[in-house]
From TrEMBL:
Superkingdom of the organism of origin: Bacteria
Keywords: DNA-binding, Transcription, Transcription regulation
Name the UniProt record assigns to this protein: AraC family transcriptional regulator
Annotated organism of origin: Neptunitalea lumnitzerae
Gene3D superfamilies, sorted: Homeodomain-like
SUPFAM superfamilies, per the entry: Homeodomain-like (SSF46689), Regulatory protein AraC (SSF51215)
Domain HTH araC/xylS-type span(s) in chain numbering: 195-296
PROSITE patterns per UniProt: HTH_ARAC_FAMILY_2 (PS01124)
Length: 297
């Protein structure tokens, strides 16, 4: 499959057959533009936001195929790869915004971009909007379009970036709503996470793999690390990493009760390469070193 590298707005606009009105941002209606080149891998160097209307065709991103329809938003960050495989007569629909990272450099939005973690979600973790939410997103997009159609002046960049931030803040709000309304699904993920944690420390994986990572559990749950982390934090108030460390400390306390095991042996069984790292983490969590804790108990 041929690869296409898209590092500029102009390159993407050329693929879509639309004019470049601004070198760092483009907004367009997919229903009025051709589909992307078929059977291609597209390496994106842009932030991409798509509001889909109707069937979206066959699009692969990471390990998952996109198969949602009306009222769905997809976010793709720079450095990601998408595969396009559509029927020959396929016509895309919905609105799209793509912008280069340089657009927001030196702005307050640039400092916040890492907080919009949905740019690293998988396609099967897309945002599903209500009718009212769709209207709000379209209104925000129309504001960006209106500003792009005005003559450029010293306020243009600031206003464009402010509208982008407004759009992304809406998306954050709607994702928070989606986490809440999918409580039964989230509880299932939490239960599976707990079982995976228990299984990990009951096996020899700590000795063979090392300390468990958030990415390890996310992969086993078929979720992206960011989506998994955000879900756990929204549901429990603690990060996934904090849950892992709490489990690790809880198991460590049980092992420390066994006087026949050295503290170095316990550290190794838990997945630490160096006992001093175990001691440092344990003291941070409990206020005692493993040796002090053993003596107290």
């Amino acid at each position: 499959m041929e690869s296409i590298y898209v590092d500029t707005v102009a390159t993407y606009n050329h693929l879509k057959g639309i004019p470049t009105e601004h070198p760092l941002i483009t907004v367009f209606d997919n229903s009025k533009t051709p589909a992307l080149p078929n059977h291609k891998k597209i390496h994106l160097g842009l932030y991409s936001i798509f509001l889909k209307e109707g069937h979206c065709g066959e699009l692969w991103y990471g390990r998952n195929k996109y198969d949602y329809d009306d009222g769905t938003m997809v976010f793709i960050g720079p450095g990601q790869v998408i595969e396009v495989n559509n029927e020959e007569e396929y016509q895309p629909s919905g609105m799209a915004i793509l912008f280069h990272p340089d657009l927001i450099k030196g702005t307050s939005l640039a400092k916040k971009m890492d907080s919009y973690s949905f740019f690293s979600y998988e396609l099967n973790e897309a945002l599903h909007l209500s009718i009212k939410e769709q209207e709000m997103i379209r209104d925000a997009m129309s504001k960006i379009t209106y500003e792009l159609n005005l003559p450029v002046d010293k306020h243009s960049k600031e206003i464009l970036v402010n509208y982008l931030e407004l759009l992304l803040n809406y998306c954050t709000r709607f994702y928070n709503r989606q986490f809440i309304t999918r409580e039964h699904v989230n509880n299932d993920v939490l239960s599976k996470f707990e079982n995976l944690l228990n299984s990990y420390f009951q096996s020899d994986q700590p000795q063979t793999i090392g300390l468990p990572s958030v990415a390890h559990f996310a992969e086993h749950l078929n979720l992206s690390s960011n989506y998994f982390g955000d879900l756990i934090k929204k549901e429990t108030g603690k990060t996934a990493q904090e849950h892992i460390q709490l489990k690790l400390i809880d198991i460590a306390k049980e092992k420390i009760y066994d006087p026949d095991k050295s503290l170095s042996q316990i550290a190794f069984e838990l997945g630490f390469k160096y006992p001093q790292h175990f001691s440092r983490l344990f003291k941070k969590a409990t206020g005692y070193t493993p040796k002090e804790y053993r003596f107290l108990n």
